[in-house]
Amino acid sequence: MHSPTHILVIRFSAMGDVAMTVPVLKNALDQNPQLQITVVSSAFFAPLFAGLERCHFHPAHLKTIHKGATGMYKLFRELVKKNKFNAVADLHNVLRSTILKTFFTLAGYKTAAIDKGRGEKRLLTRKENKDFKQLTSTHERYAQVLRKTGLGLLLNPATPVYQKQQMPASIQPLFLQNKKMIGIAPFAQHKEKMYPLEKMKMVVKLLAVDNQMIFFGGGAEETAVLKAWASEIPNTINAAGNFTFTEELAIISNLDVMISMDSANMHLASLYTIPVISIWGATHPYAGFYGWGQNENNIVSIDLSCRPCSVFGNKPCWRGDHACMMQIQENLIIDKINSLT
In sequence order, which residues have a C-beta less than 8 Å from that of residue 162 and are 6 or more positions away? Predict the structure, then answer.
């Protein structure tokens, strides 16, 4: 099987899943000097790939010109007009990516799609008699798809992706030069993955005595909460709603540590080799979504027979008490931060 020289990679969403493609593509490009990669994804995610040599980005406008099957055909025509691909790697395997991949298959391109391991994930998360073991990581599942196209690829989690970025001059004066910079990303897409906000606020207050805290989030509701915290707690900055995505990535690259849920900010920080104290409730690293190169000693969680109860944290707590998060004491998070100093 000939090794491809130009692969189209499809991964439309969500932010954390898109961010997890970056270290895989970095390894692929480093190990295959002849390789070019074009990533097609939501336009907002373009900055994630800006630092990869020989990696090109094609924006997908899924709510407008590329909406539905006709939009996917238009996207297909755009892509083949601009590029000569040897293979197409679908790292998403949802309806719209399958439609796009099918157009390439019918046109004679070699295509491959991710196996998400849904069956084994159901066994891991079922209510009783869980098959409690580490499953294949999402990074490795992405790599498997690229190998199916004929590409040689061996993942090395010790491989750094990006270096620290220079923060824009307009941002630098906001940060205290003599304090450790700790990022806080207290939100997640689903509430079952979130540490209770009142407990997280206490963590912030305790850490802000000796450190500078930078808040990350998105959307009007999250931004409002973080804005209120920043106005109340000294030594804090609210990044949510105040910086571009590119600027937020530059800030993240300069952190000393990030505190995150099982959410996108864990993966964003991992791109810059920033240690992440990750807090896990309804979900579990065994499902394969742990941050690239992160130390497992930095996981904060408690052992409960009901964990994990879902892969994505999108199922209500059947116990009704959210014990997996409520029983995590604030000092456990503080101690993890202190252990890094």
Answer: 51, 253, 271, 272
